[in-house]
Amino acid sequence: MSKIAMNTALVEMDGDEMTRILWAMIKDELLTPYIELNTEYYDLGLKKRNETDDKITVEAAERTKELGVAVKCATITPNASRVKEYDLKEMWKSPNGTIRSILDGTVFRTPILVKGIEPCVRNWEKPITLARHAYGDVYKNVEIKVPGPGKGYLVFEDENGNETRELIQEFKGPGIMQGVHNLDKSIESFAHACFTYALDSKKDLWFATKDTISKKYDHNFKDIFNDIYEKDYSDRFKDAGITYFYTLIDDAVARIMKSKGGIIWACKNYDGDVMSDMVSSAFGSLAMMTSVLVSPAGIYEYEAAHGTVQRHYYKHLEGEETSTNSVATIFAWTGALRKRGELDGNKELCDFADRLEKATIGTIESGRMTKDLALITSLKDVKVLNSGDFIKEIRTTLENQ
Ligand code: NAP
Ligand code: MG
Predict the structure, then answer these.
(1) Which residue of 32, 94, 233, 393 pairs with 195 in a disulfide if CB–CB is 3.0 to 4.6 A?
(2) What is the rounded CA–CA span in Å between residue 305 and residue 288?
(3) What distance in angstroms lies between residue 59's CA and the mean position of ligand 2's atoms?
(4) pLDDT at 159
(5) Entry pTM
(6) What is the pLDDT of residue 104?
(7) How far is the CA of 309 from the centre of ligand 1 (A)?
């Protein structure tokens, strides 16, 4: 059988620890035997980031802008203990943060559903994709602990020194105050990314804020979404047979519980932080969550939602057997390959991505899985496999399709 050709390259960003081990296994067993893999390789492992003063991360992101598609392995975000462990020159920034700010993207997270791993919410039949705005609000706040009586103000001074001033509270005793902000430009990018992704995946889009209470701040989000929708997307949504739906955040929370899923739920930064953890744990496992960064310019970067699985890596280094779930990392690859195929009109590549996903899900549904899933499955007679054997089983399923 001849291998599938790839006319255009995609950016491959390698990573750290256990996911780096899985990365190589996935390529060896599931990709290179079938595809003439055409990637531009960037090693984002912490050692290389340190050697290059983190320039490698910037280069990889810049190249992604040109090629349009990237796939990324999980990477370590250094903290104090990592600085010691890897003898780092500096506490380098989160690669995902660096890439996100270069691509100006929004992250969409979607659970992978398999029979035998049932969501806690019984009526969720289809995955719920969560889109979280990744700029501002409480994550860029300024806070004051008010010691005692006095007046708290919100003040804006324009470039000419003119002031707009609102009294927040006349304090009679101690209390607290907080200032938050957002930028129209960032909200606009977020809106475009959400509408584009909805069209791309042919799913309804929900967006919710608390505009009835926050009549200027949250209302601004609602208005920007609405204006962009009416101007650029309403016709295309009609043609695609999908809808855009705005509601209040508490209403969205109530409705999502009663829904069958199968939608994209766009959230402000804080709501997205909280709701994505709720949605992912309700669907079963972090190891079954995919993540894609979509820029308003239509650039896609695929990865798993989980980290480098450090604890398993240390076991691996000790020579112990691990049973680390590679599903989300495999789906990062299939997502990137399918997108490459779509952009290049390479149907064979898209079909391969579909088949590999089917083989992965089929392997689990036939009772062969890693330990994390075996602990939560409703299937009987489960065979727990180690990291490498699970990937080999997927290859067997793929070969026998
Ligand atoms: P993590 O790697 O997601 O792992 C946390 C725990 O979740 C694991 O110890 C494991 O539980 C379970 N788990 C996660 N993925 C799994 C998988 N594929 N298969 C089986 N079990 C899995 O998070 P972390 O330990 O907090 O972070 C480790 C490193 O990853 C950190 O340096 C962090 O900076 C980085 N990180 C990177 C990204 C990214 O690049 N996107 C995201 C998050 C974190 P058990 O130990 O109980 O088996
Ligand atoms: Mg969180």
Answers:
(1) 233
(2) 8
(3) 28
(4) 97
(5) 0.90
(6) 79
(7) 4
